[in-house]
Amino acid sequence: MGVPMSSIDVPPNPDWCFGMAATSNISHQAPDVPRALSLVTMTGLPDYALLDSGHGRKLERYGRYVFDRPEPQAMWKQRLEPGAWLRADATFKDGGKGADDDGEAGRWRFTKPLPSAWPLDVMGATMHCRLMNFRHLGLFPEQVPHWQWMLDRIKAVRGEQPRVLNLFAYTGAASLIAARAGADVTHVDASKKAIGWAKENQAASKLNDATLRWILEDARKFVARQVRRGRTYHIVLIDPPKFGRGPEGEVWDFFTHMPQMLRECEKLLAPKYGAMIVTSYAIRASALAIDGLVRECMDGRPGDIDTGELALVETGAQRLLPTSLFTRWSAI
Question: HEC states along the chain?
Fold first, then answer.
């Protein structure tokens, strides 16, 4: 669901923004800006729920198991009584002094033995969850509204098999959901371990006959090669980390490399039917910054742009936990 968050008034004469006289060589056409930001929420799945949050933590249920993990943006008080948190099956403890700002460095502590992996149903795909060294479990449930948005556009493609490019694709939830809907999917990730995990999820989802290509490569190199070859896709998903390394030591930095990545991805969009989702978990970024970059890259292409925040809805409280920023563009 999309809910307006705020509105932005565009000045009738933007000269004051630049401090330039009307005779300046700089164009004074008002910039194309969003009239409002959207709040897109995920209320839960049969196999997932946000049970509580607060004091920099979140309490979640993944299938049968409950986990207590760091969440710096949960600055409010916890709603449930302390015993509910103490009964969590595992708790991630951060690394203390010197740990990163997102609480990703640390270790899990268990209250009982847990399986090394267990399945969750996500929109018809089977995803295996695991407790990772950096507090993650192999699935980001807040992305469910994006995956539904993607499915709606897959269904709207006419005359050919929809082609989906999933960059920084991780364990493959979006790839498998798209493949299950009949799309030709190209899944790109720089981690051999993540691609192996995604293939395991493919087998568990009984999608071995689906049209799926698994690409172990630096995303920037892959995109540049696809542009040179003239390949196009109907839907491009871009969900990059703040920082990462490719299989051959290539460096990815969100703020350094994202602008050129988006410019190249625009060239990969099919001329008739096209859509793109850009998600950012880089907290220093603003939704408006991502929106402005997407608008610049899509200049000249007719289509609709929606920008805002993804948030999880807390069970029983309707409290919202922000997770990431996004911009979605669609000409479908």
Answer: CEEEEEECCCCCCCHHHHCCCCCCCCCCCCCCCCCEEEEEEECCECCEEEEEEECCEEEEEECCEEEEEECCCCCCCCCCCHHHHHCCCEEEEECCCCCCCCCCCEEEEECCCCCCCEEEEECCEEEEECCCCCCCCCCCHHHHHHHHHHHHHHHHCCCCCCEEEEECCCCCHHHHHHHHCCCEEEEEECCHHHHHHHHHHHHHCCCCCCCEEEEECCHHHHHHHHHHHCCCECEEEECCCCEEECCCCCEEEHHHHHHHHHHHHHHHECCCCCEEEEEECCCCCCHHHHHHHHHHHCCCCCCEEEEEEEEEEECCCCCEEEEEEEEEEECC
